[in-house]
Write a structure and sequence with these properties.
Layout: H1 2-20, H2 24-46, H3 49-66, H4 76-95, H5 118-136, H6 140-150, H7 156-163, H8 167-185
Length: 193
């Protein structure tokens, strides 16, 4: 198993070296190998396929432009996902941070919202909007991990691998995200923070 991982890593280094030399076929191979992981990272951040695809394209464009910055001996997947993560943050700041309303149409099963009458439906819609707005106020890493865990059903271990951070860090950031969401939501739910 360890030998297989080392061989896979050597194959990746060889491909990246060929990309540095301008080999388009090697570039396409690297893209095929890693585009799904980059997409999952971006999608977990935005919950929007179009935004995620923009990040995928930009990530591989950056790879093509900056492949010479990758140093052999480093973890290529971590390096590439760091590029994607930075692009997500920049893209979010540029396109989403000025929005006053959070327009994600994502069901929030955790909230047991009543829907028997029109007032309850109105309340349900308001709470979803408030929840989305509160989610938007979380620190970027907390929001990303919360979305990956609750919307994409990733396990903590998967999140740690995708983001290349420790399992403990993932759990800690998720805990903080939940605590912060409770605090942000409490005034709307008639509870003291």
């Amino acid at each position: 198993m360890e030998q297989e991982r080392v061989r896979e890593q050597d194959d990746t280094y060889t491909l990246v070296e060929r990309v540095k030399e301008g080999d388009r076929e090697a570039f396409m191979t690297v893209t095929e190998l890693y585009q799904k992981k980059v997409f999952l990272l971006a999608y977990s951040f935005f919950q929007n396929k179009d935004d995620a695809m923009d990040i995928v394209q930009e990530t591989f464009l950056r790879l093509y432009q900056k492949a010479n910055l990758f140093q052999k001996g480093k973890n290529f997947q971590s390096w590439l996902l760091q590029i994607a993560k930075n692009l997500c943050i920049d893209y979010y700041r540029k396109h989403h941070s000025k929005e006053t309303k959070f327009d994600r149409e994502v069901p929030i099963e955790e909230m047991n919202l009543p829907a028997q009458n029109s007032q309850a439906c109105y309340l349900s819609s308001d709470l979803k909007e408030i929840f989305s707005s509160c989610l938007d106020k979380l620190a970027e890493r907390q929001r990303m991990i919360f979305v990956m865990k609750h919307y994409n059903q990733h396990k903590y271990k998967e999140i740690a691998q995708i983001l290349n951070i420790s399992l403990g860090t993932v759990k800690s950031l998720h805990f903080k995200a939940v605590q912060n969401l409770r605090g942000l939501m409490s005034p709307y739910l008639g509870r003291e923070g």
